[in-house]
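mind reviewing this fold:
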Amino acid sequence: MAFKSRFALFHPAEEVSGPSYAGALRFAQHLRIPRGVGFFVGTLALIVVLLEMSPPTWVWASAAFTALLWAHVAYWLAAHSRHPFAAEHFNLMIDGLQVGVYVGAMGFNIMPSTVFLTIILTNNVCVGGGRLGLMTLVPMALGILVGGAGTGWHFSPTSSLAVQLACLPLMVVYPLVVGYIIYRLAETNRQSREKMRRLSEYDDLSGVHNRRFFEACIATSFERFQRDHQPVCLLLCDVDHFKQINDVHGHTAGDAVIRRVGQALASEIRRGDIAARYGGDEFVVLLHATGSDGALLFVERVQHVLQQAGGEYAGLPPISASFGVAVLDASMQETKRWVQAADAALYRVKQRQRGGVEVAPASAPAASACPQTQAQPRLQH
């Protein structure tokens, strides 16, 4: 389209369809309301000036078009363009041209001329930066020449009280409309950032945090323990007979089980604790300021919630999970050993009894994942 070649400020990556095209249409929609309100209210001030000077008919016709139709025509041009961003930037230039025409036609009436020019320049700078603001000066100057030549080049800078009062609605209403639109855009951006944050931190299926977020949190918890030595527990949770559930009842039922386990963990953790999906049917929980006794009570509550939920899914066996618990101690020099200790405890309890819980012994060696090397008694719920 010719717009791109004529104006270097036009975005070079616009496409005919896809996210960029949809974003460009939203951009045009956001400008439609302030353009319509601004020109309509501004024309009221223009009318008062024109009534004092009896301009030619074309000025009245132009003012009517600008007040009533231009915002809709501008949006139509953008919406039907292959490159809406380029078309909308062209519309902003036309905004400047029209304002220039009216400034010239009014004989540079000081109050409305200053308000009109300031609003258009401010609007275009907000949309396209200083470059667009400077480029707007060109159609403005052209418009002033056209308006002045078309009305006989009269110079009437004095603004009557009626003209000053007529400018007040534009000075009050337009900034409020723009402020509200900016608020809506900021709120939309905030919601988008929140959505992106959830996508980056949470697991869609289970509803709890994802592994990436957990790994950042366990590193923070480990560093905090090095400073204050407050007890903190790591729990590894594995859904019992999950492969059998998938094989017999299908992956939809398996997904339902994952969701329910995630809900059970999330419902029982305290503020500041972390529950996350570690991968597949495995979950992890970080319980701060909690020793092994508190961890066992937490597991008991979660198991109770899972047992109560068993009847919600027709044909499924009761949902149960096994837990391995490791209390962080000074002998663990890295988070890897802490996870290995919890994993070893989980391995042992699944070998002995599904649906149980075992606490890793203090100062457990990193190689504890092999059950034959462990002769420690397990703690079960």
The two ends are 72 Å apart (CA to CA). Residues 270 and 287 are 8 Å apart (CA to CA). Confidence is low (pLDDT under 50) at residues 1-17, 364-381.
